[in-house]
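Hello again, I could really use a second opinion on something today. I've dropped the whole record in just underneath, so have a look.
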Amino acid sequence: MKTSDDFKNGQILLIDKPLTWTSFQAVNKLRWAIRKAFDIKKIKVGHAGTLDPLATGLLVICTGKMTKQINTFQGQEKEYTGTFVLGSTTPSYDLETEVNETFSTKHITEEQIHETTKQFIGVIDQFPPVFSAIKKDGKRLYEFARAGEKVEIKSRQIEITEFKITNISENNLEFRVVCSKGTYIRSLAYDFGKALNSGAHLSVLRRTRIGNFKVEDGLTPKEFIATLPFEEKD
């Protein structure tokens, strides 16, 4: 069992973030539990790469002195699985907002779907979603979006090394993507729909890997807290 010194000296915690939790909530929950379990007044806890509330999967959380390594982990290759819904778009490019446009998918063949993935492999320019936490003029982009204000967004260079459609069920396309830091899978969904002369949005997203860290080696926040030397009361 880990001790308070272990957490202060630095631990890498692999956490499987539940649906609807923010990454910030997960960090706060773990920090509170570690402090309470070991009666520590203060301890540094941070995560290496945000996941949206509607995404699940791997959060690499660092404690104590290991927080100095966060930037290293953030820069590592990431792998995601999930589902695109073909034929409709949303302003946020995912299910945070309602469908705002629908498109025909009758012209799209399975062969075309698989062939179109090739357009996105390699180093490409990608526009982040307007519903994102990127800062512009001291404000988060989603603050402009929610206020209905238009804002100019610059594209970013990202790299996608693998992009495969693993299953097609009517308009639901299951995928696997391996990509660089800064890649927005929501934007990939939107751009992929456009490339098919239709539209698409992200309905499911799960981060399965960061560098050599895999989600199957992780614990949910509840499972992690159960490993600490105290019983949490609901």
